[in-house]
Amino acid sequence: MTDDALTPDQIQQIRDRVAELMPQVRADLEELVRIPSVSASSFDQSQVARSAEAVAELLRREGLDVEVVVEGGRPAVIGHLDGPAGAPTVTLYAHHDVQPPGDDADWDSSPFEPVERDGRLYGRGAADDKAGVMAHVAALRAHAGNLPVGVTVFVEGEEESGSPSLGTILEKHGDRLAADAIVIADSGNWDIGTPALTTTLRGGIRVVVRVQTLDHSVHSGMFGGAAPDATTALVRLLASLHDADGNVAVAGLDAGEAADIDYDEQRFRAESGLLDDVSLIGSGSILSRLWNKPSITTIGIDATSIDKASNTLSAKAAAKISVRLAPTQDPLVAFDRVREHLEANAPWGARLTVELEEHGSGFAADANGPVYDEARASFADAWGTDPVDMGVGGSIPFISDFSARFPDASIIVTGVEDPDTRAHGANESLHLGEFEKVCVAEAVFLARLGALRPAR
Ligand code: BES
Ligand code: MN
User: By the 8 A CB rule, do 306 and 409 touch?
Assistant: First the structure.
């Protein structure tokens, strides 16, 4: 491809245009945040339908040809607008569903009533990922009437529930999502003032392990001391998953090394909220532990609660563990290793069942080529600082499906989050200054791509 680069004047015009647009972009974002579009099935799904319709309307107003598609899951929005003949095409991804708000009492303001405090907009979905939706809309508005590339916008409604119907959506509507570049706006930047491209994500599995030691629960005085209770056996089993330093002790899982980026223990402690006297776990650089090595977390336990406790040996107990995997690890192979470990470490011959509840692949981008060059230049134009390549410890499993389906497309993972966003937690928020830069970068990126033409 050849590059007819944009002039500094053209870039400044885009910055100015986006600055003019921001008040309305923010107002539209606030309207989206007011819709409690939690995709988890225990929540009112008419709200997810409402948010799909609101997103569809925003795209229709920008002149896109829009369809809301439902393929057995939550409604997704697909919109398309042609670019100039011969121009590259771009697919812009975000999701309009959100995580449950959790306990209202943990929030300093109501989760679905957006409010600004100290330059941040608070609310569930204000960042993850309704700001991603609005960054795409802002980029379209910046080029209204003169779109430099062909654009398809794909806004999913079930990312926070693991995208169960995305496979079917890709089967039935995938041809419409094909593009030269796919921008996935569901990650974040390195820090306030420093942009990033997310070039690796971890994969993951969720495993339920059930332990049984007795046919039925019995008196702990009569039988304790000679018969093991299931809860203690489960806790010993869970303890076997890490060595004394907190490294994952499951043999045979892949592990890699992160690039050498400055990130010290003090920053990690501040960002994670780790208590002063609690030590870090694992070994190697902190970023390798977060991005390139496996981690295991016990995310739930079924055992008798303290309220209901009596002097009994429990017969059964169970735990759910979340295992994060190195970006290129095959999740089904990882499950085999975890199952083998659990079976080999069952204390006192306790009976085990091990069930794979969920699995998703990680992603390691081929972060080179002309599309990546233009993405990096666009970030530098918006921030005045070159972007860093970063990993994230979280997962966006469908990216590997996109990459398999569109092997020739460059997949660019961006987003609005920063280290203080608290996505999924109470007091989720969006840094409004960084949000404007995200919008500028995406608008400039479309212009830069439009200036790229296949070499003859
Ligand atoms: N946006 C996140 C992924 C992410 C996490 C990006 C951290 C950047 C930093 C995504 O919505 C998410 O939360 N994914 C889930 C997995 C999914 C299968 C529910 C996750 O990582 O737990
Ligand atoms: Mn999320």
Answer: no
Pocket lined around ligand 1, Cβ cut-off 6 Å: 128, 159-160, 162, 186-188, 360, 392, 394-397, 417
Contact (CB, 8 A) for 87 and 412: no
Which of the listed residues 166, 186, 412 should we mutate to test ligand 1's pocket, taking the one with most ligand atoms within 8 A of CB?
A: 186
Q: Are residues 73 and 148 both part of a single domain?
A: yes
Q: Whose CA is nearest to atom 5 of ligand 1?
A: 394
**pLDDT for 161:** 92
Q: Is 272 part of any domain? A: no
CATH number of the domain bearing residue 437: 3.40.630.10
Residues whose CB is less than 8 angstroms from the CB of residue 440 and which lie 6 or more positions away in sequence, other chains included: 14, 15, 18, 381, 382
Whether 325 and 347 share a structural domain: yes
Interval between CA 54 and ligand 1 midpoint (Å): 23
The 3-state secondary structure of 111-166, one letter per residue? CCCCEEECCEEECCCCCCCHHHHHHHHHHHHHCCCCCCCEEEEEEECCHHHCCCCH
SS3 215: coil
302-343 per-position pLDDT tens digit:
999 999 999 999 999 999 999 999 999 999 999 999 999 999
- Let me know whether 129 and 222 are in one domain: no
Q: What is the reported pLDDT for 5?
A: 79
In a domain, 276, yes or no: no
- Report the pLDDT value the prediction gives residue 3, as an integer from 0 to 100: 55
The pLDDT, as a whole number, for residue 454 is 57
Number of C-beta neighbours around residue 160 at 10 A:
22
Residue 159 appears among annotated catalytic residues: yes
State which residues form the domain around 420: 8-201+363-450
26 and 66, same domain (yes or no): yes
Do 187 and 229 share a domain, yes or no?
no
Candidates 126, 129, 66, 120; CA nearest to 97 is 129
Positions in the chain whose pLDDT score sits under 50? 1-2, 455-456
The whole-angstrom separation of Cα 197 and Cα 188 is: 8
Same domain assignment for residues 356 and 367: no
